[in-house]
Design goal:
This protein is an alpha+beta fold. The protein contains ten helices and 39 strands. The longest helix is centred in the C-terminal third of the chain and has 19 residues.
Length: about 675
């Protein structure tokens, strides 16, 4: 029976602990023989990542018990942390990165007892952030694993070099850095793992340098493989300063497949790297007439949007806004999408024969491991199968919307109205809404089931996820709207969506809030400081001071990002001061909650602490919660539980709502 209760006060079976326990998704799928492996989140186990094995008979096993944590810290966001190979005898050989010490380890889960325990392959360095590894690829014929090495040469974040390196599998480098063979020099600031040509004679990889981010411009490098030395004859064969190439793969015929945004969209191209002409202009676009993305921003090394299949077909993740899996015939340009309910595919793919394995989700299901048999066209879930933790009747029912901002520009958003099968609100009442600003800011909010969103919508609070100008998935022109406009376009677009919802009678104009983490935390703080749209906000591990967020004050990867987002500091110092929320704390008149991880090296806690110091005594209700053991992005179930409950309590107090069963957040003035 329906109960009439005010918005925000509805009771729901989706509590904060349930939402926190289902945070995260499977990542980095791969095949080891006929088996499928991936990493999986363990929020209840201090937020570690486990390694999961699915045998050919369908049985699933979680390997490496706590405290093993399969996760890399290269460029702080990490990337592909493991690889494996099937052997004629002894079972699989697996190599992985352990988060705690960032060493490479090898183990043999089916080997003799003494080989089942992980054994280190790389040493520990006492210098700065030490030695870190990512995107490993086994070369058992050489007795090596090839990967990206990130090596700190000093204590500062900028004192770092990155190369492609070969690590011996016999453990001889476990205590001897000199035993690691460098395959490239450190002429480029950033590199990805090498891809070996079918004949084994050449390797290709991607590189870029400051101040570019990889979605601005990268180069595809090609080198000849030598017996025991570095790659030789290294040359650029595609890409450039104004062209983003986030992934490369070799086709069976020895041509190079790569994704390039030369046309304004990340599209697939094919190049003969040994032909008379090289460069992206010489490459043939495989699908020239589709204005869709066939790749995405390279935030983590080893992300994958396409894989060649036996016989010449290519598995591709593509779309405009949402990302689906398709099979491309590169000769004809025909593209056939996989059947099934999944509307969003994560950037990870593996292939084995006619099988394609990926990670996919939908608005009614969380991310799960999915296998497509291209021979039959059948797609099925084979791992991390979605299991509704509560009645799905309490899930939100999202809407894909387009709004219009200043100058009539389009703004893409996902709207999640309040929804609960047991409750309705009084007829005259409009619901409160929270605008969610995603991180990045070069990223986007996918349309998938998120129990954190359901936590609010099932209580009668709507959510509007805004893919503001600068978001990916809509072409380079949409992405470049944020060039030198960070703190303006993102703020305006979020406000335009919130205002439109209020004007059309969807949301209560007096009960609008905004929240976001990382770059979304910046947008939230900037919105509170420069607009009067929102009644309150939740700021999560944010950037707050542009002048204090750059070289040697954040990690190396993003240390020059502001040149794209704001402009060169030497040329426009006033922008850095004028747009920083820290310098406008006196203009914030709305209550807020600030959440921060104390181990965050990307957005260090000192900025949040300075911000709170400026707000203290101003009479604006606020709360600051700092979490020990958390970095950039909360991973522990207890942290996420407390954060969600605190956020809901802020909205309840600000909007005049009684939120049953939620601890009261103490607000200071």
């Amino acid at each position: 029976m329906l109960t009439t209760e005010p918005y925000g006060s509805w009771t729901s079976p989706i509590d904060a602990r349930l939402a926190a326990g289902h945070d995260g998704r499977p990542e980095y799928v791969g095949t080891v023989g006929d088996e499928v492996w991936w990493t999986a989140p363990r929020p209840a186990e201090a937020g570690r990542r486990a390694l999961v094995r699915r045998r050919a008979d369908g049985t699933e096993q979680s390997l490496l018990p706590p405290p093993w944590n399969v996760r890399s810290r290269v460029i702080e966001y990490g990337g592909r942390p493991w690889c494996g190979v099937e052997r004629p005898e002894g079972g699989p050989l697996i190599v992985f990165v352990h988060f705690a010490d960032q060493r490479l380890y090898a183990f043999e889960p089916d080997g003799p007892p003494q080989r089942r325990e992980p054994r280190p392959l790389t040493p520990v360095s006492p210098v700065g952030g030490g030695l870190r590894w990512v995107d490993p690829q086994l070369r058992t014929e050489r007795g090596e694993v090839w990967c990206v090495l990130e090596e700190f040469t000093g204590e500062r974040p900028s004192e770092v070099r990155r190369v492609v390196a070969a690590v011996p599998l016999d453990g001889s480098a476990a205590e001897d850095r000199a035993a690691v063979r460098e395959l490239t020099d450190d002429a480029h600031r950033f590199v990805t793992g090498p891809r070996l040509s079918p004949d084994g004679r050449h390797a290709a990889w991607i590189a870029w340098d400051h101040p570019r981010m990889p979605w601005e411009g990268t180069e595809v490098l090609l080198g000849e493989v030598t017996e025991d030395g570095p790659f030789t004859g290294v040359r650029t064969v595609a890409g450039g300063p104004g062209e983003s190439v986030p992934q490369i793969e070799w086709a069976q015929d020895g041509t190079l497949l790569f994704a390039s945004d030369r046309s304004g969209w990340w599209q697939l191209r094919r190049l003969d790297p040994h032909g008379p002409d090289t460069g992206s202009t010489a490459a043939r676009c495989l699908i020239p007439h589709r204005q869709e993305e066939f790749a995405g921003p390279l935030w983590r090394i080893g992300e994958c949007w396409f894989r060649p299949l036996e016989g010449g077909l290519v598995a591709v993740i593509h779309g405009a806004g949402s990302q689906v899996l398709g099979i491309l015939d590169p000769e004809t340009g025909d593209l056939v999408d996989a059947a099934g309910p999944w509307t969003e595919w994560a950037p990870t793919l593996a292939v084995r024969g006619s099988r394609v394995i990926g990670v996919a989700a939908s608005p009614r299901s969380a991310y799960e491991v999915v296998e497509l048999d291209t021979a039959s066209g059948r797609a099925r879930v084979i791992g991390a199968e979605h299991d509704d933790p509560t009645d799905p009747a309490y899930y939100p029912e999202p809407q894909i919307r387009t709004f219009y901002g200043p100058d009539g520009r389009e703004i893409h958003a996902h709207i999640y109205p309040p929804h609960n099968p047991d409750h309705v609100a009084p007829a005259e009442e409009l619901p409160p809404y929270v605008v969610w600003a995603h991180g990045g800011p070069t990223g986007y909010a996918p349309l998938v089931l998120d129990l954190e969103i359901a936590y609010f919508t099932s209580r009668g609070i709507g959510v509007a996820e805004v893919n503001y100008g600068g978001s990916t998935g809509y072409g380079r022109a949409y992405r470049d709207r944020l060039r030198e406009q960070w703190g303006l376009v993102d703020v305006e677009d979020c406000a335009a969506v919130a205002t439109a919802l209020a004007e059309e009678g969807t949301a209560d104009p007096a009960r609008l809030a905004i929240r976001g983490g990382s770059a979304g935390g910046w947008t939230t703080a900037a919105s509170l400081a420069t607009t009067d749209v929102y009644a309150c906000g939740t700021i999560i591990y944010p950037v707050l001071d542009l002048e204090g967020w750059g070289a040697d004050t954040t990690h190396d990867f993003e240390s020059h990002y502001l040149e794209y987002l704001i402009g060169p500091l030497a040329e426009v110092p006033g922008r850095y001061r004028d747009r920083s929320p820290l310098n406008h704390a006196d203009k914030i008149a709305a209550p807020f909650l600030l959440l921060q991880g104390l181990d965050d090296v990307i957005c260090p806690p000192v900025q949040s602490e300075r911000f709170i110091a400026q707000m203290t005594g101003r009479g604006i209700p606020h709360a600051f919660i700092a979490f020990e053991g958390e970095g950039h992005g909360f991973r522990r179930a207890d942290t996420m539980t407390r954060a969600l409950e605190a956020e809901l309590s802020l909205y309840a107090q600000t909007f005049g709502i009684v939120a049953p069963g939620v601890p009261r957040l103490e607000l200071s003035n």
